[in-house]
Amino acid sequence: MPKKCARCGKEIDCKHDVSCFCVPFAMSDAMRAYLKEHYNDCLCQECLSAVKAKFANTLILDFGGVIMNHNVEGAIQRFEEMIGKEAVQRELGFPYSIENEETMIFKFEKGDCTTEEFVEHVKRLAHQHNPNRPVTTKQVRDAWNISHAGIDQDKFDFLKRMKQQGKTIYMLSNINPIHWEHAVEKYHIADYYDYCCLSYEYKCSKPHLDIAQKFAKNRGIDPADAVFVDDLEVNRQMGWQMGWGVFESIYEYQKALQ
Asked: Helices 115-129 and 177-187 sit at what angle, rounded to 10 degrees?
């Protein structure tokens, strides 16, 4: 039945049964006590996550779009110059979407092909597109890494601050070896995390529950103690099904901590 969130006033559809949106959400005893003390009715997904942020000490972060800035358009443009627009869409899987899971980019992220296989595939497409302009391995890697548009200093500061506050920080990312090597070499990004769950190593990817389940089991994550930050709604819903609090950005998460 429709009702209003007791915290923000947003209308929510409360089912009062096992089909309700809030059923997967996991809470600690401390959070339950807080909700009972401060609110006399249901909260929406956003408010439940915001309250949970004050209690959870496990922070699970996406990488691209949350920590690393995106420049996907730049990578698309470079690959279109190499292999043509049609091949970029048909073979590589740009624009990037869950509907393109059988294309090369998704296979690369899921570890279904190696870096060498990915690079050689692009080279073959480039030769078909323009036999008179050979493409090197470095050009392919550089074109792919254009989609990494840098990390703002406040993101590094955030990671350091969370660590100082005693948070356990995990990465849960759909990523391929070329991008990961670039992030580690240029930004030493692995140094900021307690553990990095990389899709190409786990042989599965978001938003499918299997990667989240394998990761959570591997690290012994208590869902009542976890929040998840991801810029894609479909991935956040995966996190919600895991029982985690969910946020679109670290700025939303930080606001909830205030």
From this structure: 110
Contacts of 65 (CB under 8 A, 6+ apart): 230, 231, 232
- Bond preceding residue 24 cis, omega within 30 of 0: no
Q: What is the pLDDT of residues 181-203, one digit of tens each?
A: 999 999 999 999 999 999 999 99
Nearest one of 89, 65, 59 to 192, comparing CA atoms: 59
Q: Is the dihedral of CA 30, 32, 35, 38 positive or negative?
A: negative
CATH code of 45-68+151-257, in short, is 3.40.50.1000
| CATH topology classification for 72-145 | DNA polymerase; domain 1 (1.10.150)
* Backbone dihedral angles phi then psi of residue 53, each to the nearest 5 degrees: -55, -30
Distance CA 246, CA 255 (A): 13
Spatial separation of the C-alpha atoms in residues 155 and 153, rounded to whole Å: 5
Q: Quick: pLDDT tens for 9-23.
A: 999 988 878 889 999
Check if 45-68+151-257 and 72-145 are the same fold. Answer: no
DSSP state of 223: G
Distance, CA of 239 to CA of 56 (rounded, Å): 14
User: What are the residue boundaries of the structural domains of the chain, listed by start?
Assistant: 45-68+151-257, 72-145
pTM check: above 0.85: yes
